[in-house]
Structures are given as C-alpha cells and as structure tokens.
C-alpha cells in the first residue's frame, strides 16, 4: 500500500512540475515578446540618432553661423543619445509590475499613471480585481512611437513601487516580477505576490506566479571579485535611502551586509538621474581601501553612470600622493587624532626655523632622493611598522623592500639630514651704507610676521616688508626729509634697491622659504624637533613612533590627511606676478594700469581652483565609522558646499576613539540638518554565521542591535584547532601547523563553493598567509583584518580570532568585521592564543 501511495505522489509531483514548467515557459515567452519590441524600438531610435547626425552634417554645409551652431547642438544631442543606447544595450530590462487601477487618471512625464494607491472599487467585493496597468522597469527609459512607456528608467518616480511595495503596504502593485535577460534573450522570471489574498485577472486570465522571489535567487549566486549592482532587487528600506532628497546630510547606519555600500552606489546613480545639472560639480565617493574601490567600481558603469562620480580610496584623496603603507595601531592613533592639528600648526611655523627649503612638485610628490613607492599589486597596502617599540614589534613589516625587520634591527631609513638651519644674520648695502640685522632682531621680526592665523606661505610678503622696515630704520634715512612726498619716494627707492640685491633675495629664500606640505612632514621625521613641536600634545612614546614612521619610504593612509592639512595651513605658495604683455591699445586707453591686476587675480583664481580640484557637489562617505578626525577634516574640505550621504556601522569601527571621530564628523558636516536611516536586514550572511558574529558584537559593543539575517543555509560554521591549541576533543580537526591547517581548510572550501574564498588573518600575518595559499588558484585570497573591510566572499577562513582581537584597542570590532564576510560558509581556525574547547571553539566565540 505504502509503495502504491508513494508512486501516486511521485506521478502527481511530476505532473505538477510539468504544468509549472509550461507556465514558466509561457511567461518567459511573454517577456521575450516584450523585449523584442523594446529592441525593435531601440533600433529605430538608433537610426533616428544616426539620421540626425547625418542631417546635422549636411546643415553644416549651408555655412551660416546659425546653421553651424544648430548642427553642433544636434550632433551633440544625437551623439549622446547613440552612445547611451549602444552602452545600455546589454541586460537592461529587469523588472515588471502589474498594477491595480489608480486613484486618479493622471499620467507622469514617463507615460505611467502617477497614483500610488488603488482607486476605490479597484478591488471588487468578491476579492477579485483587474490589472489596469503593466510597467516594465530597466536601466534607461524607452518610449514607444505613440509615447506609451515600453521601459521605465529604474530611477523614475513610476519605478518606485517596484522597490517600495511590500505585502504589508502593497499600494497598487499586485505582482512584482524580476526578469533575467542576457542581451536579447530572456532567461527566466521570478515573481513576488504583493496581494496574495487577491484573485487578480490580466486580460481576463488568472495572474500566474513563478518562482520563490528574486531576492533569494540573487543572494544565492556565487560571488566574484567584483560587486554586482542590486538594481533588480533593491528592498523597500534601501529604496527609502536611495531616493531620499539630497538636501543636507543623509545619514545611514546598519550592521554588516545590510547593503550600505550597495545603497550608497545606487544613490549616486539616482542623484545624477534626478538632477544632472546640479551634480555636474561631481559626486565623490570616499572608500576606506583601494581593495574596496576595486571591488565596487564596476557598479556605477553597470548603472549607466561613471563620468561624474569619482570613487577614491581615502589614501588617494590628495592629488600626487598615494598611500602604500599602514601605520601600527599606536601610531595611527596619534596621527589620526585631533591633537595632530596643533602639532602640524606648530610644525608648519617651526619648519621655517629649520630652513626646510622648498621641494619641487605638488604637495605629495616625493622629495629628491626619496623614491615614490608605487602602488602594490592589487592595490594592497603594506603594513610597515615603526620598528622598535615593544608594543608594536609584533607588527613586522611584510613589504620586502624598505622593510623593517620584525625584531626592529634594521631601520627603514635613517633620519633625513637635518638642514643647516636658517641664516642668522642679514647684511645688505643700501644708499652706500652697510646695513645689518642680527639674530635677535631677525627672530623678533619672524615672530611678529607669524602673528595671526594666515597661511604661512602667504605671510612671506609680510615678513619681507618687516625686514625692509627694520633695515630702513637702521639706515637713518627716515628723518632726512620732512616733505611726506619726498620721504615716500626715498623709501620706495630704498625698498627697490634692497630687494633687488642678490644677498637680500638669497637671504629671504633661506630665511623664509616657501614650504611644501612634504617638506614639513620631512622635517617632522626628526624626533628631537618633533618633540619640540609636540610638547604637551603627544607623549614621548608617540613622538618617537610618529617620527620613525615618517622616515619610512612611502606614505601611510594617515600621512595623506596630514599632507592635506598642511596644504591648508601653509596655503598655496605665493606666485610671482607675471606682467601681462603690454597691448598698444591699452597704452592709448590707459587701461594698462588697471588690467594686469584684475587679470592676474582671475588667472590665479583659476589656477588655484584647478590645482585644488577638491570641491564636489555631493560627497558619499562609505565605512564612515573608520574615518579619523584628521581624515574628516580632509574630506570636509572637499564638500564645503556639498550635500552628503554618510554610511557606516559604529560596531565595525577600527578607530579607537569613536567620540572624538563623531565630533570631527559633526564639524565636517557643519550645521546642515541630518536625515537618519537605519538598515536592519543582513543580506550577506546566512543566519548560522550571523548568530556566531553576534557573540562578538555583544563583547565589542554590548547592547548594539544585530541585523536579522534574511536567509539560512543549514550549514553551521566549522571550527578547527591546530595541535598547539588545547582542544583536541571530539569533532576537532588537528593538524601539525597553522599553515597546513589553513591551507587544507581553504582547499576544502574551494571544493564546496563555486565562487571566492577569503582567508582573513591578523595584519602581521598577511605575507605569511599568502605563502600558505600559494598554488591554490585565484579564487582564494589572503587578507589582513583591516583589508577585509567592506568585502565579501562565498566562504571565509578566519584565522585566530584572538590574534585579530589583540591587534589594537578596537580589535574586537575588527574581528566582528572579519566574521561577517562570508555569504555561505565560515571556518574558524584557532591558533595558539585562542584556547579552543573540546569542540575547537575558541574562547572568544563561546557562549
Ligand atoms: N536588495 C538586495 N538585493 C540583492 N543583494 C543585496 C541587496 N542588498 C544587499 N545585497 C547584497 O548583500 C551584500 C552586502 O551588501 P553591502 O556590501 O552593500 O553591505 P554593507 O552594509 O556595506 O556591509 P558591510 O558593513 O559589512 O561592509 C552584497 O553582496 C550586496 O550585493
């Protein structure tokens, strides 16, 4: 009997499946027909654009200025149009919504009805309703020849219900469909029913529903080394952020995997669509690492936007300078803190006294004899240390050249030669007399010139004037004439005589050199000097570490913010005024007197703006929890008149003083009103991994909410100990060494997942870990804990939670980041410090 029942069930299941398959096929062919129509229309549009270009070329032959201008405008428009159409040709139709009749019959500019809520009576008393409107959603909008919308741009208001509608608040949407297509071929469809209780009819037939929803399908896909856009499955709470009005500051918090980075990128595309003219000033996206830039930079082009958006790592924000090193946690803490601002102000002024002369090139360019460190492979940062200190010695450098030995025996570079110092005496001859200023007087003049807060380089003319005043007083010529006009003439010829004298010019260059940020930073590499400038601001240990770190080849992420600050403190070096070539006409009109001054100012201004090129119309800060106070100042300067989107998660912060960073952030964002959002759903980690990570969150930030995971895989995290660990009980895999264990576990995961595997280790083990994985192929990568920020992999191996947690005062939060990178499977390998239990679970991850 049982066998017969089983057979009947199998027959029934297979019949059901074949019916479902045929419904799916039919629905795919319905969408295929629509896509064919869209392509046909696109081809018509391309012909139109080509015709316009040809026509415009012909008009140009007419030759009148008006015709030429018209032709240029047409070519321009048609060119843009063609370009867009050709670019968007791949995979741009991805969604569809079937809607009830709206409250009113008004249509928007995209040809769709604008009502969000259904009309009264749209649902009949017997709970049936007719589909009144069907919209297809894609990467750009396409209108049919009769102006009915074939495709609605995903950013248009009419597309919002595709993202916002939920079964709790469905609005007019009955069915939301995600269409998978490649080129001209529809591959599949996935439906979500927003009103499952309703019997909806489309052209008199039941509305079929296919699949289990697109979100799960998207989340289940294998990961590659680059991020995908989520345009087909943006969720309602994310859509609220993406489409939030751009006024003031949009502030978004959310745990790991809640889509903050994805939302930030889609928001950039949305803002451009919504008000392209306003954002012509550019959108800047600041990302914490070059790895995250490389991971995310393909998303905007896939959304049809790139030109006006700059995605830059925080270590690449200053033109001409590129961070290639990490600082040890203690050094980073000193360099990133607000205290450094006071040190830099003193250093900028003090550097004058050291005779830190001008260095060629822009702010960040290496000084002579100091080779530029090129970007490392894959944009990875080296983690050089400052060498000697016991609390840092475990952070051995991993960067081969210019490296510091783990035992601190070899210094990266010797201290730069201390300059001879500024001259202590000025001697000139004027009006036939030898005039002299001695050290004490020169010092007094310098202090008086430095009074006030103006940028140091801009004070040079003032210092020059004070020198001339003092020399004039010494000359005794002041009392020679009582007639003010004659006295003024005498003074002016005195000034001219003195300042054209070589000895005066050379003295001024040596005594008040034009400083570059790099020259000041170099001057700070001298520990004694830095100690003077940082007295009562940094402690002696910090002074030693900072000075040593500045003697390495290359710059750290934190040095970049210091360079930027110094640029602001120093101001652009004063440029000699170049006289405009005299125009004979000017001489006739007398304009020559006036023009050079005005023109010079304009030119200077243009030059300065081009050089600074740091102001943007909108600034998006990703992983904002890691931005240090000094970095906030740097970013703030790039968005003084901007609107902002700031996304982050305090629980993932690797910065040790969150209160100080919050103060700096508030200062950068000014008094602009904040609009706050919180993302609550974790789309990355399955529940099994999220649950484990929540244990570390409870230690790192007690009381902080853990985002709820949207799916579960049934695969528990795996725990593995080496024989050096204590645990060797039931279920624990024990191998001879950490290296062997990690390699074997990575290989196992490569077998189990289709996509990528990330091996996350403490920062000082990165190089070692790369060697462990040699030969396993490019689906697996080794990462230092700080590099893992923002990235994700199908599976991860987290090596020694205790080592990661002990790396810095923020170590537990860094460990939380490491544990939340996997989309499918997680293996935790314990090292010596982890004290695993009999099941291999390290101390930090036990209940
Ligand atoms: N609506 C969505 N549809 C499909 N995938 C999504 C959606 N939202 C997020 N994801 C996916 O979830 C993953 C996590 O997103 P993202 O990296 O933006 O999160 P995050 O909040 O920045 O994480 P973290 O704080 O850990 O850096 C990504 O793979 C992203 O594509």
UniProtKB/TrEMBL annotation:
Please tell me where ATP binds in this chain: 254-261
Q: What keywords does the record list, in alphabetical order?
A: ATP-binding, Coiled coil, Helicase, Hydrolase, Nucleotide-binding
Q: Region (Disordered) spans which residues? A: 350-425
Q: Which Pfam families match?
A: UvrD-helicase (PF00580), UvrD_C_2 (PF13538)
Report the PROSITE patterns cross-referenced here: UVRD_HELICASE_ATP_BIND
Q: Where is the composition biased (Pro residues)?
A: 359-369
Keyword Signal set for record: no
Q: Which residues form the UvrD-like helicase ATP-binding domain?
A: 233-686
The residues forming a coiled coil are: 32-59
Work out whether the entry's keyword set contains Membrane.
Answer: no
Q: Which PANTHER family match?
A: DNA 3'-5' HELICASE (PTHR11070:SF45), UVRD / RECB / PCRA DNA HELICASE FAMILY MEMBER (PTHR11070)
The protein's name? HelD family protein
């Amino acid at each position: 009997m049982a066998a017969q029942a089983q057979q009947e069930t199998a027959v029934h299941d297979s019949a059901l499946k074949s019916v479902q398959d045929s419904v799916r096929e039919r629905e795919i062919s319905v969408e295929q027909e629509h896509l064919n129509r869209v392509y046909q229309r696109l081809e018509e549009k391309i012909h139109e654009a080509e015709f316009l270009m040809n026509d415009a070329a012909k008009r140009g032959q007419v030759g009148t200025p008006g015709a030429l201008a018209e032709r240029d405008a047409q070519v321009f428009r048609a060119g843009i149009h063609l370009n867009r159409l050709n670019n968007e040709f791949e995979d741009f139709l991805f969604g569809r919504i079937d809607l009830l009749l709206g409250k009113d019959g008004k249509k928007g500019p995209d040809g769709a009805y604008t009502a969000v809520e259904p009309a009264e009576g749209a649902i009949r008393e017997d709970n049936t309703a007719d589909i009144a409107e069907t919209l297809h959603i894609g990467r750009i909008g396409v209108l049919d020849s009769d102006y009915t919308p074939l495709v609605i741009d995903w950013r248009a208001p009419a597309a919002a219900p595709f993202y916002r509608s939920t079964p709790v608040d469905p609005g007019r949407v009955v069915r939301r469909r995600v269409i998978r297509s490649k080129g001209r071929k529809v591959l599949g469809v996935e439906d979500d029913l927003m009103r499952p209780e309703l019997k909806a009819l489309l052209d008199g037939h039941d509305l079929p529903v296919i699949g289990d929803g697109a979100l799960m399908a998207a989340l289940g896909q294998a990961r590659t080394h680059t991020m995908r856009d989520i345009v087909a499955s943006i969720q309602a709470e994310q859509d609220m952020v993406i489409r939030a009005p751009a006024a003031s500051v949009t502030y978004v918090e959310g745990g790991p995997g809640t889509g903050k980075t994805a939302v930030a990128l889609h928001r950039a595309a949305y803002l451009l669509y919504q008000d392209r003219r306003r954002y012509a000033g550019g959108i800047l996206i600041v990302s914490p690492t070059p790895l995250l830039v490389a991971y995310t930079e393909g998303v905007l082009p896939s959304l049809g936007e790139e030109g006006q958006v700059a995605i830059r790592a925080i270590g690449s924000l200053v033109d001409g300078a590129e961070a290639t090193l990490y600082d040890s946690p203690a050094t980073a803490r000193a360099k990133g803190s607000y205290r450094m601002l006071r040190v830099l102000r003193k250093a900028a002024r003090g550097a004058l006294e050291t005779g830190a002369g001008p260095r060629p090139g822009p702010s960040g360019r290496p000084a002579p004899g100091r080779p530029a460190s090129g970007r490392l492979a894959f944009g990875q940062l080296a983690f050089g240390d400052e060498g000697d200190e016991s609390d840092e010695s475990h952070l051995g450098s991993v960067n081969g050249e210019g490296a510091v030995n783990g035992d601190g025996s070899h210094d990266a570079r010797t201290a730069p030669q201390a300059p001879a110092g500024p001259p202590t005496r000025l001697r000139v001859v004027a009006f036939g007399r030898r005039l002299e200023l001695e050290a004490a007087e020169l010092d007094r003049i310098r202090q008086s010139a430095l009074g006030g807060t103006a940028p140091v380089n801009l004070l040079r003319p003032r210092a020059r004037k004070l020198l001339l005043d003092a020399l004039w007083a010494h000359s005794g010529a002041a009392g020679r004439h009582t007639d003010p006009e004659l006295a003024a003439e005498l003074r002016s010829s005195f000034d001219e005589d003195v300042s054209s004298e070589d000895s005066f010019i050379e003295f001024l260059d040596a005594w008040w050199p034009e400083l570059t940020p790099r020259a000041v930073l170099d001057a700070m590499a001298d520990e004694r000097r830095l100690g003077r400038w940082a007295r009562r601001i940094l402690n002696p240990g910090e002074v030693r570490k900072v000075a040593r770190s500045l003697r390495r080849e290359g710059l750290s992420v934190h040095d970049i913010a210091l360079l930027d600050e110094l640029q602001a403190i120093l101001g652009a070096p004063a440029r000699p005024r170049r006289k405009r070539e005299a125009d004979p006409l000017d001489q006739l009109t007398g304009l020559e007197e006036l023009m050079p001054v005005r023109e010079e100012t304009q030119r200077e201004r243009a030059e300065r703006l081009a050089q600074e090129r740091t102001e943007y119309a909108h600034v998006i800060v990703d992983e904002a929890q890691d931005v240090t106070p000094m970095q906030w100042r740097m970013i703030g300067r790039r968005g003084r008149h901007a609107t902002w989107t700031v996304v982050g998660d305090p629980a993932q912060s690797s910065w040790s003083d969150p209160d100080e960073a919050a103060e700096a952030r508030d200062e950068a964002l000014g008094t602009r009103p904040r609009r706050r959002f919180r993302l609550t759903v974790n789309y990355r980690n399955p529940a099994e991994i999220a649950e484990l990570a929540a244990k570390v969150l409870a230690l790192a930030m007690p009381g902080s909410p853990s985002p709820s995971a949207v799916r579960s895989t049934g695969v528990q995290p795996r725990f593995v100990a080496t024989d050096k660990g204590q645990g060797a009980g039931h279920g624990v895999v024990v191998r001879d060494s950490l290296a062997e264990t990690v390699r074997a576990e990575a290989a196992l995961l490569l077998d189990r997942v289709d996509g990528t595997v990330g091996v996350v280790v403490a920062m000082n083990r990165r190089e070692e870990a790369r060697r462990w994985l040699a030969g396993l192929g490019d689906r697996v990568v080794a990462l230092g804990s700080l590099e893992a920020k923002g990235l994700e992999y199908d599976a991860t191996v987290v090596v020694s939670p205790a080592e990661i947690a002990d790396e810095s005062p923020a170590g537990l939060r860094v460990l939380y980041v490491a544990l939340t990178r996997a989309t499918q499977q997680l293996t935790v390998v314990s090292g010596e410090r982890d004290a695993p239990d009999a099941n291999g679970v390290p101390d930090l991850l036990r209940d």
